[in-house]
């Protein structure tokens, strides 16, 4: 259907009481609030009543630097939050590589974001290892919450943890939909027309979508690597750069120092570590910390600042922001179920933090889902298909199909990065291999991420962000 056809609208018959779509979004991270935002811009008379359920008592605004790239930046700009995000963007000079004694080996200048120098705006074009935009996760989560919390039709409910859902018949009449149960009230269910799982890499909603028979394959593709993020008190002479120190045994310590009072520490390890895996799966935060500390304890007095990091991990309140995971790509054949439930962000297509693409997809996926719903609404108006319930007859089936077909090529491209192989090269086993890596590091100009056409120059091959400006209601 051409955009011109979309613009020729019929009006709903006066007898039709088109009620708002009851939408439940699980998770108030990045993808959840983003999809809520786009659903508030459907063309009238279509509207949603949106509940965002977050399992934590408050916004889960922990986390360290996260990257926003290419199409993610474009979406953020269309949401009108680029100025707020720019204001809290992290201004790192670049990447500093140290040897285990703390001596400088290489430096890569930061690229992308514009910086003001002497009144002039300059952009550094160097790309390797630096994202275009880097922000602290907590700042971004708060910007998105502020953007959405007072919008008409949106309500947040905290301390509300999704546990299960069940199907209530199809095609849905006005009262039918999906029944959902929450941990806080297992004896009562709530009914929604559409459930959107934005509940991160460990998504519970995903289990129900897989259980529906759409996709029985194992979707959790481990990349043989684990990462742990925590904060300790900063010191005046901590490096301002994103600093890396490789240790033998495929281990890496990274630090970031965007605020004088904090030092962000990241531990990474490649290979099979059953104790770590078990702690991530079933252990408490304390057990996870102990499992990680065991891996780095042998270097306590041998390597750059290890003693300080381990002491800070157990003794500083700052380290309560602990977040650790076995890295895995989430690969699903289909992201939706029976036109009643759909996944966005890490829940559906986590590419792993090692790619730095999770947040970009958590912006792009919700934009496309919202855009496809808006487009299908316009189509109903253009074709005058008001019979029955347009939400279930036309809009949701078409929109969910459009979401799959528009987004799938980008996700496939990002998932095709061979993270496992790259990380084995990037985190060498032996000390002499680390020496070799250091010698070569000086000549690295690009990472595999920089080769994704969607992030590079707009060539023939490049994936393009769909344009929904004709179907979304303009702001204000
Ligand atoms: C606490 C935390 C810290 C992080 N730190 C980093 C980091 O330092 N670096 C990095 O690269 N990435 C980090 N990430 C991951 C990063 O935010 C995502 O990869 C990316 O931004 C995609 O966002 P998302 O909204 O899909 O998922 P997430 O940002 O993971 O958000 C998911 C949300 O869903 C909520 N949730 C989960 N299960 C349920 C449930 N059953 N019921 C209700 N709510 C639920 C979670 O509490 C969370 O608020 C972190 C994620 C979290 C949750």
General description of the model:
The protein has helices spanning 3-7, 31-39, 70-78, 82-87, 137-148, 205-214, 274-282, 285-296, 306-315, 346-349, 358-383, 390-415, 419-426, 431-441; strands at residues 21-26, 48-54, 65-68, 94-98, 104-109, 115-117, 120-122, 133-136, 154-158, 162-167, 178-182, 185-192, 194-197, 220-233, 242-247, 251-256, 262-270, 323-330, 336-337, 341-343. The chain is of the alpha/beta class and 476 residues long. The protein folds into two domains: 3-8 and 19-91 and 130-219 and 331-417, FAD/NAD(P)-binding domain (3-Layer(bba) Sandwich), CATH 3.50.50.60; 93-129 and 222-329 and 419-446, D-Amino Acid Oxidase, Chain A, domain 2 (2-Layer Sandwich), CATH 3.30.9. Strands 5-4-15-16-17-14-18 form a seven-stranded mixed beta sheet, sandwiched between helices. Strand 6 (115-117) and strand 7 (120-122) form a beta hairpin. Helix 7 runs antiparallel to helix 8. The longest helix is centred in the C-terminal third of the chain and has 26 residues, at 358-383. It is elongated, with a radius of gyration of 23 Å. The protein binds flavin-adenine dinucleotide. Flavin-adenine dinucleotide binds at residues 26-32, 53-56, 60, 62-64, 66, 137, 161-162, 198-200, 204, 229, 323, 345-347, 353, 358-359, 362.
In terms of topology, how is this protein built?
Blueprint: H1 3-7, E1 21-26, H2 31-39, E2 48-54, E3 65-68, H3 70-78, H4 82-87, E4 94-98, E5 104-109, E6 115-117, E7 120-122, E8 133-136, H5 137-148, E9 154-158, E10 162-167, E11 178-182, E12 185-192, E13 194-197, H6 205-214, E14 220-233, E15 242-247, E16 251-256, E17 262-270, H7 274-282, H8 285-296, H9 306-315, E18 323-330, E19 336-337, E20 341-343, H10 346-349, H11 358-383, H12 390-415, H13 419-426, H14 431-441
Parallel strand pairs: 1-2, 1-13, 2-9, 4-15, 13-20
Antiparallel strand pairs: 3-8, 4-5, 6-7, 10-11, 11-12, 14-17, 14-18, 15-16, 16-17, 19-20
């Amino acid at each position: 259907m051409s955009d011109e056809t979309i613009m020729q609208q019929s009006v709903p018959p006066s007898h039709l009481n088109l009620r708002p779509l009851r939408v439940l979004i699980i998770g108030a991270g990045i993808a959840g609030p983003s999809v809520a935002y786009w659903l508030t811009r459907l063309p009238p008379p279509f509207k949603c009543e949106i509940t965002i359920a977050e399992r934590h008592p408050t916004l889960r605004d922990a986390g360290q630097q996260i990257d926003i790239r290419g199409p993610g930046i474009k979406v953020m700009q269309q949401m009108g939050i680029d100025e707020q995000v720019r204001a809290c963007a992290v201004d790192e000079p670049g990447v500093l590589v140290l040897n285990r004694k703390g001596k400088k080996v290489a430096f890569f200048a930061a690229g992308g974001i514009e910086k003001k120098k002497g009144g002039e705006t300059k952009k550094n074009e160097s790309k390797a290892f630096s994202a275009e935009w880097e922000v602290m996760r907590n700042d971004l989560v708060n910007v998105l919450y502020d953007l959405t919390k007072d919008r008409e039709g949106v309500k947040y409910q905290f301390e509300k943890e999704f546990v299960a859902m069940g199907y209530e018949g199809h095609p849905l009449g006005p009262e039918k939909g999906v029944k959902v149960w929450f941990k806080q009230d297992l004896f009562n269910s709530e009914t929604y027309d559409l459930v959107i799982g934005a509940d991160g890499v460990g998504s519970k909603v995903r289990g129900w979508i897989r259980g529906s028979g759409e996709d029985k394959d194992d979707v959790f593709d481990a990349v043989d690597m684990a990462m742990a993020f925590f904060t300790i008190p900063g010191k005046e002479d901590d490096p301002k750069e994103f600093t890396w120190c490789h240790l033998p045994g495929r281990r890496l310590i990274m630090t970031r120092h965007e605020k004088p009072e904090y030092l962000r520490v990241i531990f990474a390890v490649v290979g099979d570590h059953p104790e770590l895996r078990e702690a991530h799966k079933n252990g408490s935060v304390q057990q996870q910390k102990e499992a990680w500390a065991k891996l780095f304890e042998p270097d306590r007095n041998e390597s750059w600042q290890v003693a300080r990091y381990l002491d800070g991990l157990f003794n500083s309140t700052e380290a309560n922001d602990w977040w650790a995971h076995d890295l895995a790509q989430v690969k699903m054949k289909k992201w939706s179920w029976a036109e009643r439930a759909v996944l966005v962000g890490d829940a559906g297509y986590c590419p792993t933090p090692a790619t730095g693409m999770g947040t970009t997809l958590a912006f792009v996926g919700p934009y496309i889902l919202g855009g496809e719903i808006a487009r299908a609404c316009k189509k109903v108006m253009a074709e005058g298909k008001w019979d029955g319930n347009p939400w279930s007859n036309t809009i949701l089936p078409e929109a969910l199909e459009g979401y799959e077909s528009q987004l799938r090529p980008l996700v496939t491209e990002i998932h095709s990065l061979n993270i496992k192989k790259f990380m084995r090269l990037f985190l060498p086993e032996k000390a002499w291999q680390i020496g070799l890596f250091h010698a070569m590091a000086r000549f690295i100009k690009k990472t595999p991420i920089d080769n994704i056409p969607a992030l590079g120059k707009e060539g023939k091959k490049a994936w393009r962000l769909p344009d929904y400006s004709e179907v979304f209601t303009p702001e204000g």
